[in-house]
Amino acid sequence: MAPSLRGGTLAGTEAPHVAVARLGRFERLPWRRIILVVLGIVVGGVVVLGTLRTLGLDRVEGGYSGGAWRDFIVQGAAQGAIFAMIALGYSLVYGILRMINFAHGEVFMAGAFGSFFFADAYAKSGFLNRSPLLALAIVTLVAVAVSVGTAVLLERLAYRPLRNAPRLVPLITAIGATLFLQNAFRGFFGPQPYGYPKPTVLAGNITVLGVQIQRTQLLVLVVAVICMIVLQWFVATTRTGRSMRAVAQDREIASLMGINVDRVIVVTFAIGGVLAGIAGVLFSLSFEQVQFTMGFRPGIAAFTAAVLGGIGSIGGAALGGFVIGLLQAVGPPLILTGFGIPSVFSLKDAFVFLVLVLVLVFRPGGLLGTGEAEKV
Amino acid sequence: MTTERGAPILELRNVSTHYGLVAVLRDVDMDIYAGEMVCLLGGNASGKTTTLKTILGYVTPSEGDVVLDGNVVSGMSTAEVVRRGVSMVPENRRLFPDMTVEENLRLGAYLRRDRSAIEAARETVFETFPRVRERLKQKAGTLSGGEQQMVAMGRALMADPKVLLMDEPSMGLAPILVEQVFEIIKKIRELGKTVFIVEQNANMALSIADRGYVIQTGQVVLADTAQNLLQNPLMREAYLGEL
Fold first, then answer.
1. Could you tell me the residue range of the domain that residue B209 belongs to?
2. What ipTM was predicted for this assembly?
3. Mutate to test the interface with B, among A249, A252, A257, A314 (most CBs of B within 10 A)
4. FRET partner for B139 with CA separation of 20 to 30 A, picked from A60, A200, B63, B196?
5. Of chain B residues 62-81, which have a CB less than 8 A from chain A?
């Protein structure tokens, strides 16, 4: 036997104990916490410094007026409300299947795109401006129907057959489904953006509690908040909501109660689809266009929001959505302008993901999560 | 004895269950009559849990039938078997930890629509386990082990099952809790429920059951009254811890 091998065997049997005994004293030093605290101080310092420097700037030096800040906040909140609605879809499905439905952004896109054809036809016939409420209601119903249909078909065709496969398999399938849906829409309707009509009642601003905000933004905020309240009520108090929570907590025992687990999973995908469809209409009304790629960025932002808030938690997804929206709109100008960075808004996505990383360093389970890391 | 008692409420007729090529149950025959408490004893990997899974439709027998109240239920989904009147108190209780006791009980009655019947079942649970009523608004995960066991039993009773299955109720519990659990089971038996209990703790199980089956490597090796089993020398040697 070669000496090196024998040495290896010896080290294998003896060394670990010795090593643990010797290292014990050092290992008790809480390096992890020390690093976290130092990191926390550095991050806090940068935020405070940047903010102070930005607020110290006057208008000529590139500072912002009070009105500009207000606009950033309103815009961020409205954008965040849409992220929140999409994020709920990710979070609900994750809560029940422990799976990220990466194609959820395309569910949103499909709804928005589907509703475009109705909105466009109604605009051309004048119906959209004659009775905007009814027209928008129909348009929204179409978006919801298309999104729900897409989500349920995804579950049935792409995910259910893989229910017992390793976790990576449905994840890859989801990415495949994303590409499939994007390219299907491109194939049928072309790569160009379509102008999404907006009824004239939604044009211009409105003053609410002394604050001037765009009418569309007000609509977005009101509809999103109503949707979230209804969802919260539904999950907390209805029989179906209770069965959803039961499946999320213990699928096997839920079926032992007589709950049809497959049906609950379909309902969950459908609810995510309803929210994505409504969000699709709100998003299209805000940006006045639809395109086959429109699901990607909001989808990623919403996924980030769901993780940030604590994936699997409804309140977390809602909170995460608003936080991401506000961070994107307010964070870069507030913190980065002070350091003399020229185009702060180009950095908004980089900024958001930096924040995500930091939040997960300090709270691996997300803001409203359990504080423990969830394997995704 | 069959003619006196009529048809059994739950029957396994020559049931064999395979996981892949491995036979886990081989030609198992069991009958449980209304109002009886029957226990199934056996060591690790003897097929006890598979017997329960087969009854509940988690696995389908490769041969033979599971018959509930005269109807073949093997091949049906778990939800359907539960709807037809089988409830189980799972091993380790398995309450929904983030839900209140109240919600756990409601889920037990998930398939029932008759509100007054559900209310009556709740009252029965409260009369049997007054402690459960005190804990209604509490999250199930915050209860003590004994209290959780009461809620788990209560949850199963909420379905008003024809047969109540119990999977290793004493598993992993401290000896003092084991006694508590068997007190709880005695109370359920006083309600006149039909109970089929799977246990490793043969002494305890036989002290409260009417009859028992002993299963070994997937085959029923002994079937007798609890009295006789307690006195059976083979049993004493193999399961009752006496030589």
1. 1-85+164-174+194-243
2. 0.87
3. A257
4. B196
5. 77-79
